[in-house]
Amino acid sequence: MSREAELRADLVRLGALLYQRGLAHGSAGNLSVRLDDGSLLVTPTNSCLGMLRPDQISRVSPAGKLLDGDPPSKEAFFHLAVYEERPKAGAVVHLHSTYSVALSCLCHDCAEDVLPPLTAYYAMRVGRLPLIDYYRPGDRALAEAVRAQARNHRAMLLANHGPIVSAASLEQAIHAYEELEETAKIFFILGDRPAAPLDARRVAELETAFPS
């Protein structure tokens, strides 16, 4: 099996897993992986992550031109922006999971980091989570806003929309996304109770011990 065929199969298998776990619903959300030649495999527009077929997966050029498969997600353009800014990224996950989207709908005093580092694994896998202003779905202006944050962040949160998470592989991006969603859930469970997020010293220790 070729590398591309393996990655197509991974998108189908892991997309179904995300759907079964309730992290994806309907036709919302999209996944992508980067091929060795710089082109991308992206889940198609209006497709359900729980019901994909390998031949449906879109392959697009680094410029966004459709090369093979069904038409790509209308949000493929911000996947391309992430890859352009993060040369080591091999995958991007964007879903509309419940707790992360709820977090994106709140008013935040500081948009530079909207979810505290409540656990070590969140700090290691996600890091700081900036909030990007709202853009309507499909608005190409979102690409530049994503690009600006992707330079320094593995993950970001689109206002009233949901997270974008990148990593070296699809599995790693999904693990980081799941950590983000679970931390958002913990954030809402804690509510107004006094909490003790990791302080800057402890976060720095993790960054030294587990560099990204």
TrEMBL record:
What Gene Ontology cellular component terms go with this record?
Answer: cytosol
Q: What is its EC number?
A: 4.1.1.104
Q: Name one GO molecular function term.
A: aldehyde-lyase activity
Swiss-Prot/TrEMBL keywords:
Carbohydrate metabolism, Lyase, Metal-binding, Zinc
Provide the cofactor list for this protein.
Zn(2+)
**Catalytic reactions of this protein:** 3-dehydro-4-O-phospho-D-erythronate + H(+) = dihydroxyacetone phosphate + CO2; 3-dehydro-4-O-phospho-L-erythronate + H(+) = dihydroxyacetone phosphate + CO2
GO biological process assignments: pentose catabolic process
Q: Does the keyword Lyase apply?
A: yes
Report the domain of life of the source organism: Bacteria
Purpose: Catalyzes the decarboxylation of 3-oxo-tetronate 4-phosphate to dihydroxyacetone phosphate (DHAP) and CO(2).
The record's family statement is: Belongs to the aldolase class II family. AraD/FucA subfamily.
Query: This protein is called what?
Result: 3-oxo-tetronate 4-phosphate decarboxylase
Q: What species does this protein belong to?
A: Amaricoccus solimangrovi
